[in-house]
Write a structure and sequence with these properties.
alpha+beta; elongated; disordered N terminus; 29% strand; five-stranded mixed β-sheet; four-stranded antiparallel β-sheet
């Protein structure tokens, strides 16, 4: 292994919403960056806003440039014991006229913990998912690996498919002299090498870099700033310390190398301590590195230094307790807006383990350990990405040398979670921050941390039947005034630059508003109305009951009612369905005329489908009755072989009766009986459906309509 700092010694040695609907609309507009509308809705929602709503309102003011209103809100927010780190930082930033108080709130924020889920917490489910159940993409060793050590690759952007690869190797430059005999070290002395690599991870010929970039002592790892063509190099210091140790330091030089330019030693180095493993954040103009300098948490810590306009650097800042531990955090890499690094802390699984850290506020980080195959019980480090492939170093078993370079495809599978939402008739379902994307993001990040590096959009594939507005961030609006349909659905796909998911289903269920919000008098208004046999006209005795329904609808102008209509089991299923339609149409016509308004009442015809113990056919065919169940089953099998769906029933007197089948009409059952008697020679008998033999008192209770309050 490269032994962390590789010091050279002279003569010694890291769904949905439950708030008020108006607030939900505010969240929707906030999530879709329509801040003026979000502000208008939030401030009209009342004074008792939940913490998350206050935070959204304050952020909306900030987005609109109104720092005065934002400051007043954050002043109240930070008094809430549930306020988070971001609230303290934002409030501190707004205290421009009170630096002392601003520093006080920055200090408070620094003391707040950042959420972190340990691999070993609870019953190690996270460990199992990261290292046992899911394997991600396989790592492929690069062809340039040798029996020497190759590690810590840096990509230099190119103008075509091939990129230049700078990495560290223990191979010697051609013509390189052996180290001076007076220099003693337990570790190899490393050089920088260069090769090309394309999107298929195919590497070209290797060459060791020329003198000026390589020296007779330690060179590498490196970082590169493509905008200024500056190469930052880890290199052995030119002077030993009092104990005779040559530490490592950072230098900068031009790359490609210019003959008339000499390397510059960075001012952020500290004499007597090592400064190494640079990584440059081009967008933020920051240099990350590792160092064992005093004031850290122990071992090697990670630091960051801001580059000045003149090319120098401000004083380094320790990345803090979110990342650094009492052991070693090394090999930082700023990767597409996040920091990868390696640590040999106890939170890993052995040796150096690769971690990813996301900066949630200034120098506050949320970290997560990468899973298989990136981390093993060996040393894993130097992890980076380039578009759709990545590189890392490892001393794992199966390699060619002490350390080897590996590549992997960075195109994680796109998977989603089928979601369900409930909506009220004639109310808009508003879904925003906890929309369809939320569960998908949670699932994919848990399955593979690489998902955090890729932008995703959510594309509608099949729209629902109701009115619908869809946004590519996964938020949506849904409205369905049709009360006959109690469910709806749509599908969408997750899309990235490298592919898309299979369609993901979202179910929409109609929900009734609880009638507990109505007065007791109104709740008892909606009683069933019954009908005579085979009739759909309103009986005089039920007119008063229907008038009370009309009165309730007048009292609640937004009330929507569904009329569910039924029949008894006698007659064909098709006829009874039409009869039930006529029954609820009678109710709807009466109410519409009384209200002089339509659309407040809708009907659903259910026919005989809800009659207890009903098989929905009027005739049954029997093929025998037996005292022994075995005999009945044997006879039933004969009818099954003849093409019928025969079953065995146990009668109230303990016999086993063979039910051959059920039939809609007498003509159908008669034909079946004659055919089966001819084919089997078995005598059969025809009977009415048992439910049809029930007394009229039973059937009269089935001939009804029921009222269902959907919304009000």
């Amino acid at each position: 292994m490269r032994n962390l700092c590789i010091c050279i010694v002279l003569l010694s040695c890291v769904k949905g919403f439950s708030q008020h609907p108006s607030v939900a609309w505010g969240d929707y507009y906030f999530f879709n960056q329509n801040y003026p509308k979000a502000i208008d809705i939030y401030i009209n929602a009342g004074d008792s806003l939940e913490l998350t709503t206050q935070q959204n309102l304050a952020k909306s003011y900030l987005a609109m440039g109104d720092e005065k209103e934002a400051r007043q809100l954050f002043k109240a927010i930070v008094t809430n014991p549930m306020a988070d780190i971001e609230d303290y930082f934002r409030y501190a930033q707004l205290l421009k006229d009170n630096p002392k108080l601003a520093e006080e709130y920055r200090d408070k924020a620094a003391q707040l913990p950042v959420s972190f889920q340990s691999l070993w917490a609870e019953d190690s489910l996270l460990y199992k998912k990261r290292f046992m159940e899911l394997r991600y993409e396989a790592l492929q060793p690069l062809a340039l690996n040798t029996q020497e050590a190759e590690f810590a690759a840096t990509l230099i952007p190119g103008g075509n498919d091939s990129q230049q690869l700078l990495y560290v190797t223990s191979r010697k430059m051609e013509g390189e002299k052996k180290r001076l005999r007076r220099i003693l070290s337990k570790h190899p002395v490393y050089n920088l090498a260069q090769a090309t690599i394309d999107s298929t991870q195919t590497t070209g010929p290797v060459r060791l870099l020329q003198l000026g970039l390589n020296t007779v002592l330690q060179d590498g790892p490196v970082a590169y700033d493509a905008e200024t063509k500056t190469l930052y190099i880890t290199r052995s210091a030119t002077q030993k310390d009092e104990q005779g140790v040559i530490h490592l330091e950072l230098i900068q030089t031009n790359y490609p190398k210019q003959e008339n330019r000499s390397p510059t030693v960075l001012s952020l180095n500290m004499p007597g301590y090592s400064t190494l493993h640079p990584s440059f954040d081009v967008k933020g103009q920051r240099l990350f590195f590792a160092s064992d300098r005093p004031g850290g948490f122990g071992g090697y810590d990670l630091y960051v230094a801001q580059r000045k306009p003149d090319g120098g650097f401000e004083s380094p800042i320790n990345l803090g307790k979110d990342i650094n531990t009492e052991v070693n955090e090394v090999f930082p890499n700023w990767v597409m807006g996040q920091l990868s690094y390696s640590s040999n802390s106890e939170e890993g699984i052995g040796g150096l383990d690769i971690w990813l850290a996301e900066e949630v506020m200034i120098n506050r980080w949320v970290k997560t350990a990468l899973g298989a195959p990136y981390n093993t019980v060996a040393d894993d480090f130097g992890w980076t990405l380039h578009k759709t492939f990545g590189l890392q170093s490892s001393s794992r078993e199966g390699g060619k040398g002490d350390d080897d370079l590996y590549a992997f495809e960075a195109t994680p599978d796109l998977t989603g979670v089928a979601d369900e939402y409930e909506y009220f008739v004639s109310d808009t379902l508003v879904v925003s921050a906890l929309g369809v994307h939320h569960n998908d993001e949670e699932l994919m990040r848990q399955q593979n941390p690489l998902h955090r590096f890729f932008d995703r959009s959510y594309e509608l594939t099949t729209p629902p039947k109701g009115s619908f507005k869809w946004n590519q961030n996964g938020s949506f609006l849904y409205f369905n005034p049709v009360a006959e349909s109690i469910r709806d659905s749509f599908t969408y796909q997750i899309q990235t630059d490298y592919g898309k998911s299979d369609p993901i289903l979202v179910l929409l269920h109609q929900k009734n508003k609880p009638i507990s919000g109505l007065s007791k008098e109104i709740r008892t208004t909606f009683e069933p109305i019954f009908f005579n046999y085979d009739r759909a006209d309103l009986l005089t005795q039920y007119k008063d009951r229907l008038d009370r329904v009309v009165s309730a609808l007048k009292q609640y102008p937004k009330m929507v009612v569904r009329v569910n209509s039924y029949t008894d089991s006698r007659g064909s299923e098709t006829y009874n369905l039409e009869l039930s339609k006529s029954r609820h149409q009678t109710m709807i016509r009466y109410i519409d005329e009384a209200l002089n308004e339509t659309g407040r009442v809708v009907g659903v015809a259910l026919g005989e489908s809800k009659v207890p113990e009903n098989n929905r056919k009027d005739y049954v065919l029997y093929g025998g009755s037996y005292g022994a169940k075995e005999n009945a089953l044997e006879r039933s099998e004969q009818f099954i072989q003849a093409g019928e769906t025969s079953i065995v029933e146990k009668t109230p007197n303990g016999l086993y009766r063979v039910l051959v089948g059920t039939y809609e009409s007498f003509k159908d059952v008669k034909a079946a009986s004659e055919r089966l008697e001819s084919e089997t020679g078995i005598g059969l008998w025809i009977d009415e459906s048992p439910v049809n033999k029930r007394p009229d008192e039973f059937h009269s209770k089935q001939r009804r309509v029921e009222f269902e309050v959907l919304n009000y």
